[in-house]
Amino acid sequence: MSIDAIAPIGAVSGLSPVTASSGSGGETGGTAGGVDFGAMVAQGLQRLQQVQDTADGLAVQAATGRLTDVHDYMIAATQASLATSLAAAVRNRALESFNEIMRMQA
Fold first, then answer.
1. What is the distance between the alpha carbons of residues 94 and 91, in angstroms, rounded to a whole number?
2. Which of 82, 63, 62, 80 is nearest to 71 (CA)?
3. Average pLDDT of the chain to the nearest whole number
4. How far, CA to CA in Å, does 41 sit from each of 9, 16, 47, 67?
5. Residue (of 14, 10, 88) closest to 54 by Cα position
6. Could you give the dihedral angle defined by the CA atoms of residues 73, 11, 8 and 17, in that order, rounded to the nearest 10 degrees?
7. Four-point Cα dihedral 105, 40, 13, 58, nearest 10
8. What's the burial of 66, exposed, middle or buried (CB within 10 Å: 0-12/13-18/19+)?
9. Cystine design at 55: which of 2, 30, 80, 83 (Cβ 3.0–4.6 Å)?
10. Which of 104, 54, 43, 105 is nearest to 79 (CA)?
C-alpha cells in the first residue's frame, strides 16, 4: 500500500516572502544585505494599517447597504483580525526578548 505525500499549501495572498541574504557573518551593525529591521517593522505596520482600513471600508459599506457580497467583508475582517493578532504576538515576543537581554546584563 502506497501513501501519497500531503501537497503543500499555496501562498497566502497579500504577503511577500522574507528572504535572508547570506552575509559575511562579520557585520556587526545596521543592515544585512540592505534590509533594515526597523524598515521591515515599519513596512509591516503600514500593511497592517492598510488591511484594517480595507476592513473598515467594507464594514461601512455593509452597514449602509452598499456592499453586495458580505463574504468580502468577512474575509477582510478575518484578515485584519489575524494581522492584528500577529502584530501583537510579535510585539510581545520582542518585549520578552528585550527583557531577557536586560536580565542577562544585570
1. 5
2. 62
3. 83
4. 26, 14, 10, 33
5. 14
6. -140
7. 100
8. exposed
9. 80
10. 54
Separation CA 85–CA 79 (nearest Å) = 10
* Helical segments of the chain, H only: 37-64, 70-105
Q: Which three cell numbers stand for residue 71?
A: 463574504
Neighbouring residues of 55: CB distance < 8 A, sequence distance ≥ 6: 73, 76, 77, 79, 80
Question: Model confidence over 13-47: pLDDT tens digits?
Answer: 565 666 655 444 444 455 556 778 889 999 999 99
Read off the amino acid at residue 62. A
58 to each of 13, 46, 81, how far by Cα in Å?
18, 18, 14
**Structure-derived torsion over alpha carbons of residues 42, 84, 93, 31, reported in degrees to the nearest 10:** -20
Confidence of residue 87 (pLDDT cuts 50, 70, 90): very high
- Mean pLDDT over 66-72 rounds to 93
Closest CA to 33 of 18, 22, 44, 17: 22
